[in-house]
Amino acid sequence: MDFTASAAQLLNIKADSLILPTGPQLKDSADALDKSLDGAISSLIKAGDFSGSSGETLVMHIPGVSGKRIILLGTAGANSQQQQIKVIGAGAAALLKTPSVKAVWVGEGLSDDSEWQAGIVARSIQAASYQYAPVPKSVKKSKPKKLKNLTYWAPSKADATAAKKGLIYGAAVGNGMNAARQLGNLPANICTPSFIAAEAKALTKGQASSRAKSRAKVSTSVLSEAQMRKLKMGSLLSVSAGSVEPGHLIVIKYQGTKASTKPVVLVGKAVTFDTGGISLKPGGGMDEMKYDMCGGASVIGVINALIETQMAVNVVAIIPAVENMPNGNATKPGDVVTSMSGQTIEVLNTDAEGRLILCDALTYAERFKPDTVIDIATLTGAVISALGKVTAGLLSNDDQLAEQLLSSGTRSGDRAWRLPLYEEYDELLKSNFADIANIGGPQAGTITAACFLARFTKKYKWAHLDVAGTAWLSGAAKGSTGRPVPILMDYLRSKAG
Ligand code: BES
Ligand code: MN
Ligand code: ZN
């Protein structure tokens, strides 16, 4: 998809679709357009065909000109960024339903922040263009999307310049989301820990050799189980013990600025299938546990977007990738394992496996002397009870970092909400037989899971995003969402300055 920005005469831009955000009152460019069309738009409003309410769409064909259409996009009442993002999403969906090849998006009538708005437009168009690439290939072919080119029309030259930046950023975020979605949607018999490791390597291959044109240096290394054993990652290895698929610790380094700048370390949980282990999950809906690697997939999506934008940040991605299965070698409830940090863990429930792989990855993160560490994990069912499928859970040992992430969530529409890490919750993790138990009982499950992680993150600023509710949708719309790529990218972008 090609994105450009322009402040040229709107009607001089050649396109087969024009997306026009407007309320019931036509203003500025919408009004001018209406006048040049002998009131075709205002008469639709008068007749009651289009009310201009938030997210409403109406496709109209311009009389006398075949194949040209205007997509009216209602904006009334869309005052918050969240509402505006929804409106843009509805416009992108309506556009992608048409056979349009080249479109113009009128960057007026919704938000005055052209850079932000163009970013959301490009991201939404990329996300609306996503089609699952079936593996193995199916005989049923889906119709390819036709849209090739989108011009973002801005009301001034300065706005067009700002919009251009937004388009590049937003398209990369959208592509990163789609990369994460594809990995998430792949079945677990294809998307194994080794498969994710190979994808991570493929992502950075060729990057090293094309250094001349791309500033950033990127590289992937993968630790084997033998190497992890040498590092004493007994907690992580206790999860992969019950699977015939070997576990991997994937490390991707993205250096977009000077080497002395401390990196942001992103740690993404990648349990390619979570049966629960010996603490076996009930059967209903268990297929959705193929999505238990979405934290890791989002981190790969972020690296994808960083490479595309060549953003001036340093990031290290750490992805512990394992399968949680119950074979004869599997960890049993009551087993005590020793983590890389030296702390012993009583595994009271083998289904609380995410924290067991994350704790060793978080200890490993120390060697990169991080500025900040953020882990992303489909960690608890409890976060769905608390926040539903709308908002990610955020827990942090640093107030400023938490505030920054909350505002990145608002700006990107990929929102999070903070929960506390009070010591009263940590006390629920007491074990009679080890330094810590891996579960804290039936109450406050999202918080006790984060308290567990907090025992391993004392040496740096850290935040945890529990995305069990937001990383994928269930039911008829079942599929990976690409979250939390947008909030992470917004945070990194604010770091890049
Ligand atoms: N991957 C699951 C969390 C999950 C459950 C995500 C349902 C989305 C939907 C995680 O490994 C898990 O099983 N957590 C347990 C923890 C419990 C045993 C303390 C949970 O939430 O039930
Ligand atoms: Mn589990
Ligand atoms: Zn899990």
Automatic annotation (TrEMBL):
Keywords from the UniProt entry: Aminopeptidase, Cytoplasm, Hydrolase, Manganese, Metal-binding, Protease
Gene Ontology terms: biological process: proteolysis
Main location: cytoplasm
This enzyme's EC code(s): 3.4.11.1, 3.4.11.10
Domain spans labelled Cytosol aminopeptidase: 349-356
Cofactor note: Binds 2 manganese ions per subunit.
Active site: K281, R355
Domain of life (superkingdom): Bacteria
Record GO terms (molecular function): manganese ion binding; metalloaminopeptidase activity
GO cellular component, one term: cytoplasm
Function of the molecule: Presumably involved in the processing and regular turnover of intracellular proteins. Catalyzes the removal of unsubstituted N-terminal amino acids from various peptides.
Record NCBIfam families: PRK00913.1-4 (NF002074)
Listed name of the protein: Probable cytosol aminopeptidase
Species this protein is from: gamma proteobacterium HTCC2207
Source organism phylogeny: Bacteria, Pseudomonadati, Pseudomonadota, Gammaproteobacteria, Cellvibrionales
